[in-house]
Amino acid sequence: MSTNEKPTVLIVGAGLGGLMLGALLEKSGVPYTIFERAATVKPLGAGMAVGPTLFPVFEQLGIYDEFLSIGKYLSFVKGYEGTKTSLKFTNENDYSQITEFGGYGMYIVGRPVLYDLILRQVPAHKILFGKRVLNISEEDDKVKVYTSDNGVHEGNIIVGADGAYSAVRQRLYEKLRTEGKLPKSDQEDLPFSCTCLVGQTKVLDPEVYPIVKEPHCQFLITMGDEKPFTWSLMSTAQNTLCWTVICHLTKTTSKAAMEQRFRNNDNAEWGAYPAQVMCDETKGFLVPVGNEKMTLGDIYDLTPKEIISKVMLEEKVFDTWHSGRVVLLGDACHKLNPAGGHGAVTALHDAIALANLFYAMPTKTSADMTRIFEDYKSERYPAVMESFHHSQRFSRIADRGFVGALFKFLITHMPAWLWRIALAKMARFKPQAGFLPAAEVKGSVVPVVSPSEQRARDVFEKYQQRQREQQQSAATV
């Protein structure tokens, strides 16, 4: 594709998925702009596990070595069971074996730190902050994004990367509903069965808190034996503790239902439902740190209040991922329970697939647009559904009764051979950018073939061949 044939991509949402797409398009030469409703980036979120599924593309982007300096190597995840007065060690899972299968180790990094690393791969002038999207439109071969500051921005493709309550998805679905083309399942509210507190402590003194000076990440998960809660701590390379507290609700609900419940209780603060309430409810829970007399309340006291946030953990894979020149990415089209640890990774993999397909587009026609979006969903949907079911299985360990007890038993007594199979399965998806020099394929597990990567690689190699021929021709003149 010549320079003037490349589509102009309007990315709505500067989360991890939107930023990764921007970083890749920057390398591919495809023009783009990112719109973010927030005026500034807030350092919210807890820890993330990053490993073989992302490191090949990190190598291609030239950020792998820098990532190693900000991540902390993960060898074991230790499990505990907590009661009102005590903690009991139950099991540990060895993640160091994943290097054998995937060729890279597993690392824990604070989400804000990873966000900053990817943010720096996108030129500042290509991210427009404080741009809340009010509407989108499509006409012939053009699309437009209308923002709250009366701005109108024109391109060829709109990518909705703006989260679980995506404005792009809402506008797209409104149009499809009016036309009678929106599946019934996509008209239902986003369900959720968990709420969650997340945060990260200030930098801790290693002499006072020895857990942070351990050479490997200390990843500690506690399941409440008498309480519908699961809480975890992760030490980071920055000498902080990332933490997460999940409250497992007794039944699946929705944001709309929860809002109505609080309205009925004369609670007008649902829009920013105070995290402090959940902090107060859980502050007495013990954590397996030091002499085991520390509590979550101690962890909260070590965390700046402005970076403690409470979120709903929605679970849904939408059926409609695209229409016309509009396509969705990450949480906007599939929201996974974080129990499986796959949510951010699936969004980043979406970005890789879309970047490959945008690079390899033969033309900017509507017909080609429809084909690449169909190919995108065809490639990503099976992997997303696998992650969705994986996350749901892990979330069942908090169920009360026989099912929860069974899942908890399987997790805490998993035989070594079955754990190795699970790790090998995790290492299968390692997509790369086909328009950049390929990273070496490492590990004993052969990666799943990525059709979008192959398509971009074919175009890239033909371009490279033409460049060589032109250079040889010039040399002989």
Automatic annotation (TrEMBL):
Boundaries of every FAD-binding domain copy: 8-182, 308-386
Pfam families: FAD_binding_3 (PF01494)
Superkingdom classification of source: Eukaryota
Alphabetical keyword list: FAD, Flavoprotein, Membrane, Oxidoreductase, Transmembrane, Transmembrane helix
Transmembrane segments: 7-25
GO molecular function terms noted in the UniProt entry: FAD binding; monooxygenase activity
Family: Belongs to the paxM FAD-dependent monooxygenase family.
UniProt-recorded name of the protein: FAD/NAD(P)-binding domain-containing protein
Organism: Linnemannia elongata AG-77
